[in-house]
């Protein structure tokens, strides 16, 4: 718990904690109201399109600056007919502008509909129509991609009114007088945001987030989130994602200087660390996995005490190089090395559900994700009928938490399919041990159904990465040539360099390591030539669905030097 020496005093945080009106729809106005340093630069936003961004001092934006911009944009939106309950789209690469527009939209009582700028134009165009977006603001080239897609796929259909977000920054004017009813006073169940899921298993879903539920868990974090006056935050999360909005709202409430990085690549994260010297770095696992730790300058690295990955859990191979950097304090002692907070969650949960802290002294990983966060009222491993399974058995993860989405917009059947016996199904396969520790084994559609039973891809990937030292890997189901209707696991392995490697030798090494861990052997190993052979979606998750489609018959191929195939080993 952080009490003293923090950016926001005990008294200020008590005021926030006790205010029952505080929620996800009005967090900014509460942050502005309790702050005594409204003119202090708080949010820093380098222009990553500039060749010199990594050495230029980023301009800071204060709470007062945000307030002025929010009022300007809210006046513009109101002039376009945006009222409480409207759905307003945001489609931009600019994390700071996207945040400010989000605040303006929710301050009118409307819902911000966020879309990742990396999403394919046709998919994004369909998403905005499906979410009943009436006004849409975004980058000029992204808006053109949407317009082309609508013209091609939905000619004549009503589409949102659009506006270039950069032009608005230059032309939006303040209201001539205070706007009546502004900022909007939210009810607990007011819809404030729609932010799509990753879409790795198909069409991106549209979970909804409300004023009270999306703030659940954040009230307690006013005391537990690192917010000493020495703390500085770097976020490389997709700022169109619910996680990006969530952590930026916490930073503003707690007054933590924060750098918003629009480039989630590992190289950009390393440059931003050198530029900003943060104490905490937030990102999705792929961004952190690709950080070249050796490129972080010692004088910058020593400031880091925490890396925080979230969404999917992270692999040991990716965690260890990062926690070798920095310094942390435990029980009053300063120790070499940082901590890595591995947080498992999903778009629908609104919060990280499980947390596991790793340090240089950690000796056992094995996909352990720790224990449920405080916001989780109950978590259970369930069978196909929704019955709780005993410790040691693998099954579907079900959770009960006030932070969970109320469902998917206009898709009651999908919402119903996601709940069973009062639990929300996260789509994860888990195992809980008798000591209370939980282990993340797989996503439900990624389980490999072999002739000998289910094989879980994530523990296998953990072993493959450690055995090969690869940058990334995915273990996926491919057809078993000897057992029609069944699959075998195949590892697609990507290295950071282009050195020549023997696929057969790597397969032998991996299967020996898997055997030592008591895990099923790989049926094959394929060397990826580049990232296109191991593609990721808009949030940085490997698209295993696409790999399964591409490689379904790969074990029947011959003559590919990048592919090694092993003979099946059947249980006796």
Can you walk me through this structure?
One of its GO terms (molecular function) is CoA-ligase activity. It comes from Streptomyces prasinopilosus. This is Acyl-CoA synthetase (AMP-forming)/AMP-acid ligase II. Keywords: Ligase. Residues 56-409 form the AMP-dependent synthetase/ligase domain. By secondary structure, the chain is α/β, with parallel strands linked by helices. The chain folds into 3 domains: 10-263, Rossmann fold (3-Layer(aba) Sandwich); 376-442, Roll (Luciferase, domain 3), CATH 2.30.38; 448-565, GMP Synthetase, Chain A, domain 3 (2-Layer Sandwich). It contains 17 helices and 28 strands. Strands 1, 2, 9, 10, 11, 12, 15, 16, 17, 18, 19, 20, 21 and 22 form a 14-stranded mixed sheet that branches. Strands 6-5-3-4-7-8 form a 6-stranded mixed sheet. A 4-stranded mixed sheet has the order 25-26-27-28, sandwiched between helices. Strand 23 and strand 24 form a beta hairpin. Helix 2 runs parallel beside helix 9 (242-254), helix 3 packs across helix 4 and helix 15 (457-468) crosses helix 16 (503-516). The radius of gyration is 24 Å and the shape is globular. The model has no long low-confidence stretch (mean pLDDT 93).
CATH homologous superfamily annotation of the largest domain? ANL, N-terminal domain
Quick one: CATH class of the largest domain?
Answer: Alpha Beta
By secondary-structure content and strand pairing, the structural class works out as alpha/beta
Over all CA atoms, what is the radius of gyration?
24 Å
Distance between the termini: 54 Å
Number of domains: 3
Helix percentage range = 25-40%
**Shape, per Cα inertia axes:** globular
Number of helices: 17
CATH topology (fold) name of the largest domain? Rossmann fold
Please report which band the strand proportion falls in: under 5%, 5-15%, 15-25%, 25-35%, 35-45% or over 45%.
Answer: 15-25%
What is the architecture of the largest domain at the second tier of CATH?
3-Layer(aba) Sandwich
**Poorly predicted sequence stretches spanning 5 or more consecutive residues:** none
Number of strands: 28
Main sheet characteristics = 14 strands, mixed
Query: Averaged pLDDT, please?
Result: 93
